[in-house]
Amino acid sequence: MAWPVNQIGNFVFLSIEGFPIPPRQEVEVHSRRGVRGSTIARTGVRGMPFQVVTSVDSYNRDSAWLQFRHYQALIGQDPVEFIKNNVSSLAENYGVCVLHVEPLVVAALLNSTPAYFPPSLGWLRCRWDLIGIPLDQQN
Predict the structure, then answer these.
(1) CA distance linking residue 107 with residue 112, whole number of Å
(2) What pLDDT does residue 138 have?
(3) Would you call 121 helix, strand, or coil by DSSP?
(4) The domain 7-137 is classified under which CATH number: 2.30.130, 3.30.70, 2.40.30, 1.20.120?
(5) What residues does 24 pair with on adjacent strands?
(6) Which element (helix H / strand E) includes 64?
(7) Which residues contact 36 (CB under 8 A, 6 or more apart)?
(8) What is the pTM of this model?
(9) What does the pLDDT look like over 68-98, one tens digit per residue?
(10) In 10 A of CB 23, how many CB atoms?
């Protein structure tokens, strides 16, 4: 059985913890004192920031740090594809922009089962702050 695809942009991960929040219609509720009922006004489709935690092996600890630095290059760039367990954000017509990424664990391993980057002697876990961006509303 093949591993599920977990990806942010061109970067692959063994796992992504957390769930994306696709852009969605926002509404405002209007009501006035002394007037019966309420109205709802649609204010537009917008993304909402969300967090995920990624885990991936690396050749060694130094290459794990280098991977993290490459992740930081995505901050403020155009939206990229987000795939969790083979489900792509492009299927719902949105990408994600990276707002922030920080390392949680950068470790050297004595031994490991090879995964994406054999001999897998490094480990990298990062927390990402992302926001969904509708692809049809990009400037």
Answers:
(1) 12
(2) 53
(3) coil
(4) 2.40.30
(5) 46
(6) helix 61-72
(7) none
(8) 0.84
(9) 999 999 999 999 999 999 999 999 999 999 9
(10) 23
